[in-house]
Amino acid sequence: MTLADDLSAEGEPEREFNPGIAQRLPRKRVAGGALIRDRAGRILFVVPGYKPFLDIPGGIADADESPLAACRREVREEIGLDLPISRLLVVDWMPAHGVWPDGLMFIFDGGQLDDDQAEALKPTDDELTGLRFLPYQEAVPHLRPSMARRVGSALHALAEGQPRYAEFGRS
């Protein structure tokens, strides 16, 4: 079944019980990122040119794009690999902060790269100035605190085999 098939099976959309309410409902930003490791267990981080912190590969979902599809697309755009990203590790609610509305951040298991893949890796997106494989503890000082907590939760989920829910990185 495709998404179009599923939408068709839903039938006609519900009518607004109060005209205009759908446009007044809050919108959340949604993002998907990948926890990608090398054979030594180090985590792949991207070095964005537009902020002073490291990040994991991934990004904001486009309109009508799922968090998983956004993650896969962003990984292809940022590092040029089409990885079998699938298993959910973390869903993290982020509060509004500055100009950014609240949102839901998803981390998926990006798997482990073999030595040849890891060695040949380079950024394929102009927004990035580099890539770094780091052990989690070495990466923490270079991450926003909420991202450090989120990645830590993802590592626990990976080890436990169960996804986690977090709020601002706290499980």
From TrEMBL:
Disordered: annotated segments: 1-21
Q: Which InterPro entries match?
A: NUDIX_hydrolase-like_dom_sf, NUDIX_hydrolase_CS, NUDIX_hydrolase_dom
Entry EC number(s)? 3.6.-.-
Q: Where is the Nudix hydrolase domain?
A: 26-157
Q: According to the lineage, what is the superkingdom?
A: Bacteria
- Pfam families, per database record: NUDIX
Q: Does the keyword Magnesium apply?
A: yes
Which of UniProt's keywords are assigned here? Answer: Hydrolase, Magnesium
Give the protein name, as stated in the record.
NUDIX hydrolase
* Source organism of this protein record: Micromonospora fulviviridis
